[in-house]
Amino acid sequence: MLSIIISTRNEEHYLPFLLDSITSKNSEFTDYEIIIADGNSQDRTREIARNSACKVVLGGLPAQGRNAGAKIAKGELFLFLDADVVLPPGFFSHIFSEFQKKKLSIASFPLFPKGKTIDSFFFSLYNSLAMISQKFLPYASQAILIEKKIHEAIGGFDEEIKISEDHYYARKAKKFGKFGMLSKPVFVSLRRFEREGRVLIYTKYFLCGLYMIFFGKVSSDIFRYRFHDYPRQNT
């Protein structure tokens, strides 16, 4: 069984598109459970999740939510997804085949935005970097497929990290199993870029990437990265 774990907070707009891409556009695959780890949403997120036969647990910030969902997950494979992504048709049959063929324990995916030309350019750079460096410096963002035993071996996501906890998670996991990039893409939202400005966000991601290479995980608030729909973190 596959456990699909989605961390949410006030996602009534985006969550239905993700759930539809799982249940309707990939209806040939049924051996899964969907777990919504919700951080006290004030909108219809929980109602939407329950109406779609999802399990709902109390979450928090993304790392906390993913860990909370993993604790009740029954599958031997976990698929962690951001709530504002969409999966393409044929996603599951393709990724399982490739995951097994490459003998992977953890994997991530190319990210495809629907936005301006500049977004396509920068995401293409990210995808190329992730492919080139997959054997020695994993990048994993917004969608991660991992064996349950590897998740448990590394103690889950580090809840103290302020930004790029997913990249750090993949780099820890690589010590216990083989990491690789799969070829099937995931379609991603650009809401943070549109809300905060592309120059600011791309600059933060670039500087954060350099910081992690030279200093490791980002446990301080140096980049002032905020999850706007969540209560402010104590720093």
Give the arrangement of secondary structure elements:
Elements: E1 2-8, H1 15-23, E2 32-38, H2 45-51, E3 55-58, H3 62-72, E4 77-82, E5 85-86, H4 91-101, E6 106-108, E7 111-113, H5 117-132, E8 143-147, H6 148-153, H7 165-173, E9 179-181, E10 186-188, H8 191-196, H9 198-215
Could you walk me through the main structural features you see in this protein, from its secondary elements to its overall organization?
The chain has helices at residues 15-23, 45-51, 62-72, 91-101, 117-132, 148-153, 165-173, 191-196, 198-215, and strands at residues 2-8, 32-38, 55-58, 77-82, 85-86, 106-108, 111-113, 143-147, 179-181, 186-188. The chain has 235 residues and is of the alpha/beta class. It has a single domain, classed as Spore Coat Polysaccharide Biosynthesis Protein SpsA, Chain A, CATH 3.90.550.10. Strands 3-2-1-4-8-6-9 form a seven-stranded mixed beta sheet, with helices on both faces. Strands 5-10-7 form a three-stranded mixed beta sheet. The longest helix has 18 residues, at 198-215. The chain is globular, with a radius of gyration of 17 Å.
